[in-house]
Amino acid sequence: MVKTIYVGNLPYTSTDDDLRALFGEYGEVKAVKLITDRDTGRPRGFGFVEMEPAEADAAVAALNGQDYGGRTLRINEARARHGGPRMRRTG
After folding, report:
1. Cβ-proximal residues to 81 (8 Å cutoff; 6+ apart), any chain
2. 91 within some domain
3. Dihedral pair phi/psi, residue 67, rounded to 5°
């Protein structure tokens, strides 16, 4: 079973490979997903990393609050979304 980690306040220049290298110091990275704006395709400054639970916990403890590319990382265990379907803005 893997644990999903939320990684926020990333530099907008970050890539999947950057996150894979950063978190790879704490164990095997199973998956990386940087979130981009649906309309512009530009990075939104956050993403998700999947790792084994013990390795994920070590990465969160070590990296949360650390400087990365001039920004202070906000890292924690991702929480599942609750509620109904996402609302889309129109107009």
Report:
1. none
2. no
3. -75, 135
Q: Answer yes or no: are the C-beta atoms of 48 and 7 closer than 8 Å.
A: yes
- Chain-wide mean pLDDT for the chain? 90
CA–CA distances in Å: residue 61 to residues 19, 23, 36: 16, 12, 26
Task: Read off the pLDDT band of 90 (50, 70, 90).
Answer: very low
Domain range enclosing 12: 3-77
Residue 10 maps to which CATH number? Answer: 3.30.70.330
Q: Report if residue 83 sits inside a domain.
A: no
Pairing state between β 43-51 and 29-36: antiparallel
Q: Could you tell me the pTM of the whole model?
A: 0.84
Could you tell me which residue, 7 or 79, shows the higher pLDDT? 7
Structural domains in the chain (count): 1
